[in-house]
Write the structure tokens for this entry.
Amino acid sequence: MFRECREELGIDVIEPDLTGLYYHSSINTHAAIFRCRISEDAEIVLSSEHSDFKWVDIAELSESQRIRAQDALNFQGQVFSRAF
């Protein structure tokens, strides 16, 4: 995660926590979700793998994305595990 954020976003993350493990049956894959911070003065610089990014309101996410985001926001030390 540290390497991916540094390579793809040009930032260093602070205090990462694994907040959830999710199984998506429709595509037979698992997703690990982390919550972390970035410094207030961090500037996101995308790698050539990406063309754009944006911050969105949680209400704009799909149901499974919203659940994963809410789990990360509500994380208090116990890793969530869900299947979709």
About this structure: The mean pLDDT is 95. The helical segments are 2-9, 63-73. The longest strand covers residues 14-24. Residues 63-73 form the longest helix (11 residues).
